[in-house]
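Project standup — Tuesday

K.O.: blocked on the structure for the chain from last sprint. Re-posting the sequence here as requested.
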Amino acid sequence: MGVLRVLEEEDLANFSFEGLKRRIGSHPETLSRVLSRLEEQNIVERAEDGYRVTSAGREHLQVHPIDASAERMTLLKTMLPPNGNPQTVFANLRGRWFGNLRWLGNTQGGSEVVMKWVTEDGRVQLDARFTPGELTIEARLLHGRELAGAVRSAHQLLAHISRAYAPTNGRALLFEASPARLTPN
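H.V.: unblocked you, prediction finished:
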């Protein structure tokens, strides 16, 4: 799969070299040459934390729907804390790697921010979709059916998102449950 196709399908505004390499299964030297050509054509530019699609690139790219064989499926959906600061969370998570998840990139539109990670083996892509008051984690199974691994990775990502929403005392805001007590009858 080509770089431009991934940029179009995912509507990526910012992305990382490592994430894109894993997402398309490209050799690093090949991807580097492709990105250099796209830079020369003013479609992408280097950014502090990877690459970003330029305004000229936005005009060149045409976002189109993904193919039906790789649709996204919702794995987790939860409410977000009303007192959390989404920009702080975004800044804490952007560009980060978690376990087998590698940062792919992000896109923003209106009141929605979507942060994307891909597994080391390139088989699963996770999208954390932040809308006002709600978080949805979706999976896109890219190569085969790795649903169990996708679910584990989604829970791992949710734990990191929860910590990013934590106040300075370190307590997670998304999970405020205490263990249930079992008492004999």
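K.O.: great, moving the ticket to review. The chain has a mean pLDDT of 79. Strands lie at 14-15, 44-47, 50-53, 72-79, 101-109, 112-119, 124-131, 134-141.
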